[in-house]
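Protein modeling request. Please complete all fields; requests missing the sequence field cannot be processed.
Requester role: graduate student
Desired output: 3D structure, C-alpha cell encoding
Chains: 1
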Amino acid sequence: MVQASTSPTATELATLAIDLIRESGCEYGDIRLGTYRSQNLMARDRSLRNLSDNVNAGFGVRVLLDGAWGFAASHNKTPEEVIRIVALAVETAKGSRLSQQEPVQLAPTEAYRDTYVTPIEIDPFEVPISEKAELLLNLNEELLSYGERGIKKAYSFLSFSREEKTFASTEGSLIQQTLYRTYPGFGCSAIANGDAQSRSYERPPLNIGYEHVAPSDLQSQVSRVAEEAIEKVYAPEAENTRTNLILKPSNLYLTIHESVGHPTELDRVYGYEANFAGTSFATTDNLGKLQYAAPWVNFRADRTQAAGRSTVGYDDEGVKSQDWYVVKDGILVDYLTDRETAHRLGRGSSNGSSYADSWSSVPMVRIPNLGLEPGVEGGSHTATLEEMIANTEDGILIDGVGSFSIDQQRRNFQFGGDAFWKIENGKVVGMLKNVTYHSMTTDFWNSIDALGPASELEQWGTNICGKGEPIQVAQMSHACVPVRVRDVRIGRASHS
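Delivered output (496 residues):
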C-alpha cells in the first residue's frame, strides 16, 4: 500500500533553507515564504464591472556573501526547489560581488520567534460575494437617483487583502505573520454646462476586517456626496493668487506622504533608489539641523498603531515594529531605515522600515505609518477645524485628494483636492472647483500656524505607493489633524 505524501510546512522549508545558507559560507541569509490573496470588486453605474479574487504563493531567498547581495525566488514550495533556489541566490551573490564597490554591512537585530495576526472582527473573505456586490450596486443606484439634477456616473468599490508570511534568518529568527487589509469607497460625477466634476467618499484603507466596510456609514454619505458634486459642477474656478489654506486630513495625508515620507527614505537620501520618486533634498548633513517644519510640528513614524495600513509585528528583515520621530519640534531628527542603510548612518539598529510586496520581491525601505501629531492641548497653535475657519478672513478649505506632482528632489510640489470651499470673514461661503496649491516643502511645513487637537485626528493613508524597478506597491497610514497653512500660492487646475 502506497502511503500518501504530505507537503512540508513553511517552518520545515524555512529551516532547510537556513541550514543550506549557513553551510554555503554566507555571512547572512533569510527566507520569506508567503501566500497573498487579494479580492477586488468594482461597480460602475448599474453593473458590476470588475470582480477578481487572486492567490499567489511562493518564497524568496536572500543571502549576503562577502558583502554582496544575492536573491532568487520560486513559486514551487518543495524541498528540492528550496535547495535549487538557495544555490542560485549564492551564485547570484558571487556575481554581484564582482561589481561591488563597497561591501554591504547590516545593523544588528535580535532574533525573534513569534507570531503576529492583524486583529479583526469579521474575516472579509468569509463574507459572500453576493452581499458585497449588492452593497455596491445599491450605493450606485442611490447616487444615480440624482440623475435629473446632473449625476450621470457612479462607481463604488471594495478591496481586501491577506498576507500570510513566514520569515526565517540565519540569525535565529522564525516569524509568522498574517495581515488583513480592507478599503471601501464610492463616488459620482455631475455633468452640466459642458463641464464634469466628481466627488467621492472613502473609508480610509486600514488593516482591519470587514467591519470597516460599515454599510450604514457608506449609505449615509450618499446624499451629501451627490449634492456636493452637483454644487461643484456649477461652482466658480479659483483665481491665481496667494491665500490661506485649511486642509482636512483626507487631503493632508498625501502631502505628508510625498513631501515628508519619500524624502526621508534613507535609500533615496543615499542615492541607492531613485525610481518613482527621485532622490531627496533631506541629506544626512541636514540631520539634526534642518528646520523642516514650524517648531510646533512633529512627524512620528509608528508601525505599531492600531489598524495602521503599515502596521505589522515585524518588518521583512525580522526587525520588531517600533515608533520614532522623523521630525521633532520642526527639526529633521531621523530617517526611515532598513538594516543596510541604518548601518551606513551609524545607527545601532534599523527602525524596521523594510518591506517587500511579494515573496518574489526584494525588500527595500518603505514609508511606514507616518503621522502628523495633533496640536498640544491648550497650546497657542492648537485650534479645532471650526475655530480655524472662524479665525480665517480669506482662505480655502480642501477635502480629499486630486492630482499632484513633485520634483525629483521632493522640494517643489503642487497638490489638488476633491472638494474646495471659499472662506470669507470666518465663514464658508460656497464651493470652488479646479484648485491646486503650490509650494516648496520646507516653506509649506514652516507656514503652518494652526494644528487640530487630538479629538480631530483621522487615520488616512494610501494603498498604492509605488517604488522600485520593477515596481513594488506598498501601503501605509498617515494619521493627521486639520491644519491651517498661511500664504500659499494657489491656481487653477484641469479637472479630472
